[in-house]
Amino acid sequence: MSTRFVKLVRLAFLITIVGLSGCSMFTAKPEVVDTQAAVLGPIPEALQQAYGDALALMQDEEFVAAEEKLLDITVKYPTYAGPWSNLSIAQSKQEKFDQALLSIDKSLLQDSEFCQAMSLKGVVLRELGKFKLAKEQYLVALKCDPNDSLTLYNLGVLSDLYLHDNVTALSYYQQFLITQGEQQDEAVKSWVVDLKRRVPAEALEAPAQSVDESVDGNSLENQLAGEE
To answer: Facing residues of 17 across strands?
Structure first.
């Protein structure tokens, strides 16, 4: 597998920009989305302007400036999950992974059902070398959003390159390809072919482990205990 390609996809995931309440922002012109009005009320105009500026900096890959702006936003408006998540992304892009972990935890503190933040936390944990915790976090994110293709992909990469679990990697790569429909990634397809050559035939016939089975009580207890 091409390590270069893995790094490119990883960076592509980290640059995903999330809205104030966790909505993905893939539009050319950043915008602020308010889906927490019932809880937090209308977004203040000053916050909309500042956050829009921060998203623009993120899209321009001005991560140092984006971090400064997002830090200011999180001080003034600490109850919004999105700015904390994007702060984590900006810090990750600068390889400030310890700070990024603190930021993503603060995002989840504001919105415990923020699926993208759960997945992003898995990325940060992986970069910190906490591979087992990263897997547990990805599985929690996948339970939150079973159709999240990026989480499936990241689980495949983690299992393949970091945990050296060919059977599990193959399963997640295949699930990832299913989410792609007819536009399947050629590189991942080649990895599937390679893994099928190396995985025992009996393992190929075994049913894949479900998310509910993976996220069991023991794994969550290990996470809380800080197992690495």
So the answer is: 25
Span 94-150, pLDDT tens digits: 999 999 999 999 999 988 988 889 999 999 999 999 999 999 999 999 999 998 888
Tell whether 88 and 196 lie within a shared domain.
no
HEC profile of the chain: CCHHHHHHHHHHHHCCEECCCCCEECCCCCCCCCCCHHHHCCCCHHHHHHHHHHHHHHHCCCHHHHHHHHHHHHHHCCCCHHHHHHHHHHHHHCCCHHHHHHHHHHHHHHCCCCHHHHHHHHHHHHHCCCHHHHHHHHHHHHHHCCCCHHHHHHHHHHHHHHCCCHHHHHHHHHHHHHHCCCCCCHHHHHHHHHHHHHCCHHHHHCCCCCHHHHCCHHHHHHHHHCCC
CA distance between the termini of the chain: 25
Q: Are residues 205 and 138 in the same domain?
A: yes
Domain of 205 in residue numbering reads as: 129-228
**Same domain flag for 50 and 124:** yes
Q: How many domains does the chain have?
A: 2
Note the pTM of the prediction, 2 decimals.
0.75
